[in-house]
Design brief:
The chain has helices at residues 15-19, 44-54, 65-77, 94-102, 118-133, 138-148, 162-166, 172-181, 204-218, 236-249, 262-268; strands at 3-8, 23-25, 28-31, 34-37, 59-61, 81-86, 109-113, 152-153, 155-156, 183-190, 193-201, 227-231, 255-259, 273-278. It is of the alpha/beta class and 281 residues long. Helix 1 links the parallel strand 1 (3-8) and strand 2 (23-25). 41% of the residues lie in helices and 24% in strands. Strands 2-1-6-7 form a four-stranded parallel β-sheet, with helices on both faces. It has a four-stranded mixed β-sheet with strand order 8-14-12-13, with helices on both faces.
């Protein structure tokens, strides 16, 4: 294949990306004065340990323009056309830096703002790979995936709001109230940014069941190729429950499980779970 697919580490594709030779550009995760590379030399458990010990969330940083130029150059020099998938530009400067770097390569590098994160971003990478296997050219693939961006359901349910509070995404009162009353809000992407939606109440299993039912009602038509169940080191029983519920509710050919990397984990906390897929208009 003369197309090389690449993506930010925030795509959370894990082995599914490796199987498709998707090359990953790590974002930085900063714990105090130490700088790590997402997916390379830091694990989600180290994030949990750091937050428990210090009370602070990790900081994250995007690669700069020169980092991206160096990353892209090796593929272009090997005769490849690069299609790179970034986390939403409203969540990180990563896309702007990648798009600026792409200008140096005379149309041989395409930088896609997925307007998503985690495996919502990963779904577009996987779709692009499928299109390449069908013989589509790079320009056609970019056009198609850009058109699909508004149809990607990127959503999840957090177990607790501690991390969202520490990150300034909810108030102290909302955090305490949610934790005491067992309220689990839907967090979803709308036009590239995270917003809060339905507030579910009860055990995580009960909330996940209602969340999946609501997804089925909201998206009666969907691309049945695959969906992701992506979680931040969630309880195995909760993950298995979600898999079974999705299989009973939808008709996906593949239900793929991925664990969120350190960047995503650092913003949502342990036991967060989402069901992500591409809808149809």
């Amino acid at each position: 294949m003369d197309i090389q697919f690449t993506a930010d580490s925030t795509c959370d594709l894990g082995k599914y990306g490796a199987e498709r030779d998707v090359k990953i550009m790590p974002l930085s995760v900063i714990l105090g004065t130490e700088n790590f590379r997402d997916g390379v030399n830091i694990t989600p458990q180290e994030i949990f340990d750091y937050v428990a010990r210090t009370g602070d969330l990790p900081k994250t940083a995007a690669p700069n323009v020169e980092d991206y130029k160096s990353f892209f150059r090796s593929f272009v020099d090997a005769g490849k056309t690069v299609i790179h998938f970034n986390i939403s530009a409203k969540s990180s400067s990563s896309h702007d830096c990648a798009a600026e770097a792409a200008k140096e390569f005379g149309g041989k590098v395409f930088a896609v703002d997925t307007k998503a994160l985690s495996s919502g971003q990963g779904l577009l990478v996987m779709k692009a790979y499928d299109l390449a296997q069908e013989g589509k050219r790079a320009e056609e693939i970019v056009e198609i995936v850009n058109a699909l961006r508004p149809l990607v359901n990127t959503s999840f349910i957090p177990d607790r709001l501690d991390y969202l509070y520490k990150g300034g995404r909810c108030s102290r009162m909302a955090m305490y109230g949610a934790n005491i009353l067992k309220i689990h809000p839907l967090i979803e992407m709308e036009d590239g940014q995270l917003v809060a939606g339905t507030k579910y109440r009860g055990s995580m299993q009960k909330c996940i069941a209602s969340y999946i039912d609501d997804l089925a009602a909201k998206y009666p038509k969907y691309d049945d190729t695959r969906c992701f169940i992506t979680h931040s080191s969630a309880d195995p029983e909760l993950v298995e429950f979600a898999k079974k519920k999705v299989a009973e509710t939808f008709s996906f050919k593949e239900i793929l499980e991925t664990v969120a990397g350190s960047v995503i984990t650092g913003h949502c906390g342990r036991n967060t779970l989402g069901v992500l897929f591409i809808a149809e208009a």
